[in-house]
Design goal:
Number of strands: 22
Low-confidence stretches: 1-10
Helix content: 25-40%
Distance between the termini: 26 Å
Strand order of the largest sheet: 12-11-13-14-16-15-20
Largest sheet: 7 strands, mixed
């Protein structure tokens, strides 16, 4: 629904239309600055007060040939005047900086959507690189869209005629011209981006001046030319009162770990090796040295996790982070942390596989790996973040369980969450959980010798004994331990007992989990949609849409995947059918079938991009015979 408004501006009367939401995608070559453009539009929209969600899409190859389909970079943002859960299925607006960007992204653009193209790039050579036999601007193939042809490169150079920059540097500003145009179209202020440009290029004032000029030129071009006949408005969303910031998933993880460090009183240590899409967590935490954070970029994944285990032994809040290939390399060392029963958080920011796979694309295919991908019986708790802002509390919860139960904990995220963003309401420090954990005090043993594997009766956690403390000398390592004493043991009965204890220790985490909350009819119904991790937004949108059509659908999202909640089997049994959408080939579906003997309907997707809301809605209707 739109409402036509009259613009009383004396310069040029322009019709205005008010929308409840809009989805915009910027697409171009990997050197065209599409991520920067999308991020600035997102930041400005957050300051305006819109609810929003983003989906950056990076090229899978580091140096794909310019102008080719593999080299296309895109950034999608959805802004709304109400609560939203996803970055949208299909864009209403596509800004295409070259033929390759147009060809790759046009199939997603809504019918009659707004299409802005940089005509300067539609040379015969570039058309050939993109695989076009005919120029789409001339063959009528774009007649189903509201096409705006703009000479972005020419207009940018004309704006900068008096600049000392060379043409190559001038051409790098054309994305800012496009940003200025879209700011005008969607009634966005320029101030925040002007300030950001000043900070970004503060050591290069000529670049600040050039980009600000081009930004304003793009805005005024859209204002004065007859190309654009309508301006659009999206009102601020009605959010809960409080201080908000737009936050990326990996940024929220970093802040969550820093908060956990401060709330526990433990110094934070991250041992990591760079890998997409987990690397930015290392970059973020490296900037928090003033809060007692130590970051160690190791020579490889094995050294990174082993350093983190050493930090845990020494009394630090220890973290290691990677993606699927790196998690595979860390597997033996995680088993060492299981055997030594030391607290460690292992962050897995999942990406498409196998092997190098799709390094910049998203997937949820590491679930079985982190549950079972270690030698021997070596169970660990596994928690999954559901959204960028949820990463903050997921990090804190992972640290709480690791230190309370003296276990390594795996925290699952993925590329969609890591690089996506949304508004996050800043919590009050006093509302965060108290994570203080006491190291073992030799005085507590009295005249008895210290026993490193004597267990807490509630959690079965062993004492956290800091090396170098008089009276707490003990063995540590990968060989099987004798119960209580910690001596090396090859006794069969002891190995069975220790295996059972390590498994029970993880199982007891479920005692602390709150009862499951079903969104919908808790007493049962025809269909329950179960999700985990980043599918939450798409599932929520699909279930809400289904209910709007009168369908009896409920939703359940799992945060802990090991141990599974104690009441999960009872909840699943109340529904006639259970649907599990996953960005893998059905890993959670298999686990639920095996554990609870429920005829789960698996809905897999491994395309390197998240579920669309309408995909899940269509599957819901199929199962309900609608």
């Amino acid at each position: 629904m739109t409402t036509a408004l009259e613009d009383r501006s004396p310069e040029r009367p322009v019709a205005r239309e008010r929308y409840h939401e809009v989805v915009i995608r910027f697409a171009g070559d990997s050197g065209d600055g599409m991520q920067l453009t999308g991020t600035q539009f997102t930041t400005t929209s957050a300051l305006v007060g819109n609810d929003l969600s983003t989906l950056p899409d990076f090229p899978a190859e580091i140096r794909a040939p310019a102008g080719t389909l593999p080299g296309v970079s895109a950034f999608q943002v959805r802004i709304a005047d109400h609560d939203i859960h996803t970055p949208g299925d299909a864009p209403d607006v596509l800004v295409a900086m070259n033929p390759a960007a147009l060809k790759k992204n046009l199939p997603d653009l809504k019918s009659n959507g707004v299409l802005i193209v940089n005509t300067d790039e539609f040379s015969q050579r570039n058309l050939g690189k993109a695989g076009y036999d005919e120029n789409p601007l001339e063959d009528g193939s774009l007649s189903g869209y509201r096409l705006h042809e703009v000479e972005l490169t020419t207009l940018t150079r004309r704006t900068l005629e008096d600049s000392e920059l060379d043409n190559k540097a001038k051409d790098r500003c054309k994305n800012v011209f496009a940003l200025g145009m879209v700011y005008w179209m969607y009634t966005r202020p320029l101030d925040a981006t002007v300030s950001w440009l000043g900070r970004k290029f503060k050591k290069r004032p000529e670049l600040v001046d050039a980009n600000v000029k081009v930004l304003k030129a793009g805005f005024h071009f859209a204002d004065t030319t007859e190309v654009f006949q309508v301006r659009y408005e999206v009102e601020p969303a009605k959010l809960q009162p409080g201080a908000y910031r737009n936050i990326l998933g990996n940024s929220a993880l970093a802040l969550g770990f820093v908060a956990a460090s401060r709330r526990s009183g433990l110094p934070l240590f991250l041992g990591a090796y760079p890998i997409t899409p987990a690397s930015s967590l290392l970059h973020e935490l490296a900037g928090f040295k003033q809060f007692g954070v130590t970051t160690f970029q190791a020579e490889d994944e094995i050294a990174a996790v082993c350093a983190a285990i050493g930090a845990a032994f020494g009394g630090s809040l220890a973290i290691t982070a990677s993606s699927g290939p790196g998690i595979a390399l860390k597997a033996e060392a995680v088993g060492l942390a299981v055997m030594t029963e030391l607290p460690l958080v292992v962050v897995d920011v999942q990406r498409g596989g196998p092997s190098t796979g799709l390094p910049t694309k998203t997937e949820q295919s590491d679930l079985l790996q982190v549950l079972f991908g270690r030698n021997g019986e070596s169970p660990v708790p596994v928690i999954a973040a559901a959204s960028p802002k949820d990463c903050f509390m997921a990090a804190i919860e992972a640290c709480r369980v690791a230190t309370r139960h003296m276990v390594p904990v795996v925290l699952l995220s993925d590329g969609y969450i890591a690089n996506g963003s949304e508004p996050w309401k800043l919590p009050k420090v006093e509302d965060l959980p108290d994570l203080r954990r006491e190291f073992h005090d030799p005085a507590a043993d009295g005249d008895d010798p210290f026993m490193p594997y004597r267990r807490d009766p509630e959690t079965l956690a062993r004492p956290w004994a800091i090396p170098g403390t008089p009276g707490l000398e003990h063995r540590i390592g990968g060989l099987e331990k004798e119960n209580v004493t910690g001596n090396v043991s090859y006794d069969p009965d002891n190995h069975q007992q220790m295996t059972d204890l390590r498994a029970e220790k993880v199982a007891r985490v479920a005692r602390e989990l709150p009862p499951l909350e079903v969104d919908g009819d808790p007493d049962g119904g025809p269909l329950l949609v179960v999700g985990w991790g980043s599918t939450e937004g798409s599932i929520t949108g699909a279930v809400n849409a289904a209910r709007g059509e009168g369908l009896g659908v409920s939703r359940l999202h799992l945060r802990w995947l090991n141990p599974l909640p104690n009441d999960l089997g009872e909840v699943l049994a109340r529904y006639d059918r259970v649907l599990v959408p996953e960005m893998n080939m059905g890993q959670l579906s298999m686990l639920l079938r095996a554990r609870y003997l429920v005829d789960v309907v698996s809905y897999p997707k491994v395309e390197g991009r998240p579920f669309f809301r309408d995909e899940i809605l269509t599957k819901i209707k199929e199962l309900l015979d609608v």
